[in-house]
UniProtKB/TrEMBL annotation:
It comes from Megaselia scalaris (Humpbacked fly). Pfam families: ArfGap (PF01412). GO terms for molecular function: GTPase activator activity; zinc ion binding. It comes from the Eukaryota. Residues 7-101 form the Arf-GAP domain. This is Arf-GAP domain-containing protein.
Length: 101
């Protein structure tokens, strides 16, 4: 796959609302992604995801790793806002899930 095409798609993905921050902690400028969950991550949260094992979260660098077209498709179809709506659907409003940024 053409590397310029991949970078263009990833740049487009980062412009989708919610994806310019880490999905877990809302830290700015995420440089990592969970390719099976379709989310962006900061370096600290990517380490947590790596510790879960690849059967839960497959972490890749947005810029350093090779990307397959299927990985990009998952990222474009999901994203941080969609995924958090699913995982946080039943969390009470008064429950703080993230550290303050």
């Amino acid at each position: 796959m053409n590397i310029q095409f991949i970078f263009t798609k990833l740049e487009h993905f980062l412009k989708i609302p919610g994806n310019s921050k880490c999905c877990d902690c809302r830290g700015s400028d995420p440089r990592w992604a969970s390719i099976n969950l379709g989310i962006t991550l900061c370096i600290e949260c990517s380490g947590v995801h790596r510790s879960l094992g690849v059967h839960y979260s497959k972490v890749r660098s947005l810029t350093l790793d090779a990307w397959e077209s299927e990985n990009i498709k998952v990222m474009m179809e999901l994203g941080n806002e969609v995924v958090n709506k699913i995982y946080e659907a039943n969390v009470p409003e008064n429950c703080s899930m993230r550290p303050p940024t």
